[in-house]
């Protein structure tokens, strides 16, 4: 529950009341089960990816079911039932993706070393970033597309590309910024 200050007294944004403590525990248990199943699904398919791998009509039905689940949570009524229906929908999304020939994420990466000694992991897609980072929190994880965006916006990348074109097989060992080069020049006397 998030509180806002109102004339010195905190006021909650939203308060949920269940009819009794037992009902609250059942709702919490159902929502914990939902979170466990969805977290496992996200580990396999990527965060918010699975819904985009299925036909539009199934996606629309699933999103309508998510609206019903959220409404049940807001009312504190019927949560357990809506969780069960939503979990069947999650299973249907996975089955439809598999039937369409889509494969779950692999969790594969290529490793390198950052100048400070941190391990760098490069993954094939943006969706793989969350999977690899979740399992390897100590690594810096980037997708190939992220690296492309970084290089595309980095003004020095054009010069690096030209050098690599001229010197076939050259590898980048260090990149200096103009400021770093200017301030660290040897004094010529």
Primary descriptors:
two-stranded antiparallel ribbon; 3-stranded mixed sheet; mainly alpha; 2 domains; 189 residues
Quaternary organisation of the protein chains: single chain
Give the N-to-C terminal Cα separation.
66 Å
**How are the strands of the largest sheet arranged?**
3-4-5
Structural class, by secondary structure, is mainly alpha
Number of domains: 2
For the CA atoms, what is the radius of gyration?
A: 25 Å
Bin the strand percentage: 5-15%
User: How do the helices and strands follow one another from N- to C-terminus?
Assistant: EEHHHEEHEHHH
Low-pLDDT stretches are 1-7
Give an overview of the whole structure:
The protein is mainly alpha-helical and 189 residues long. The chain has 2 domains: 15-99, no CATH class; 110-183, no CATH class. Helices cover 54% and strands 11% of the residues. It has 7 helices and 5 strands; from the N terminus they run ββαααββαβααα. Strands 3-4-5 form a 3-stranded mixed beta sheet. It has a two-stranded antiparallel sheet with strand order 1-2. Helix 1 runs parallel beside helix 3 (79-99) and helix 2 packs antiparallel against helix 3 (79-99). The longest helix is centred in the N-terminal third of the chain and has 25 residues, at 21-45. It is elongated. The N and C termini lie far apart (66 Å). Mean pLDDT is 82; it is low at 1-7.
């Amino acid at each position: 529950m998030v509180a806002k200050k109102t004339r010195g007294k905190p006021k909650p944004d939203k308060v949920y009341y269940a009819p009794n403590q037992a009902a609250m525990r059942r709702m919490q248990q159902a929502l914990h089960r939902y979170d466990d199943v969805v977290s496992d699904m996200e580990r396999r398919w990527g965060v918010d990816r699975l819904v985009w791998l299925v036909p539009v009509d199934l996606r629309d039905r699933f999103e309508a079911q998510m609206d019903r689940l959220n409404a049940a949570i807001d009312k504190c009524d019927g949560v357990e039932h809506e969780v069960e229906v939503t979990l069947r929908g999650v299973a249907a999304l996975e089955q439809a993706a598999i039937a369409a020939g889509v494969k779950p994420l692999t969790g594969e990466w290529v490793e390198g070393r950052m100048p400070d000694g941190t391990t760098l992991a490069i993954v094939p897609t943006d969706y793989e970033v969350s999977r690899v980072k979740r399992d390897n929190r100590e690594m810096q994880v980037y997708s190939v597309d992220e690296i492309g965006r970084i290089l595309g916006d980095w003004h020095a990348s054009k010069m690096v590309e030209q050098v690599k074109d001229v010197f076939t097989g050259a590898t980048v060992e260090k990149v200096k910024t103009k400021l770093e080069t200017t301030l660290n020049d040897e004094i010529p006397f």
